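Service request form, structural biology core

Requester: graduate student, group of Dr. S.
Request type: structure prediction, single chain
Budget code: on file
Notes: please return the result as structure tokens.

Sequence provided:
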Amino acid sequence: MEQAAELLVGGYASAAAVIAGVVLETTLRSLCVEQKISIGKLNKMNEELAKAGTYNALMQKRITSLADIRNNAAHGNVDKFNQDDVKAMIEEVQRFISSILS
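Core staff response, request fulfilled:
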């Protein structure tokens, strides 16, 4: 997450969003392993983790939104997000990871 924050400060919002998205997806994969949920695409893992009660429907929607920013950044759709969106994404991923580790 530090690398994502540094990239954002350097003006590389797309790269920062992709890095933050990788961290998010890696975290979801780890949660799936812990919960014995099959690993798949991010949205499917997100859905299954919410169904399993790992987190609530509101968090599921937030994760879907964060994944959308990451996907747009990865595909060069820079008109679909801005630097503030990526800053909020980084903060939200950090909060999510902190809450899961607690």
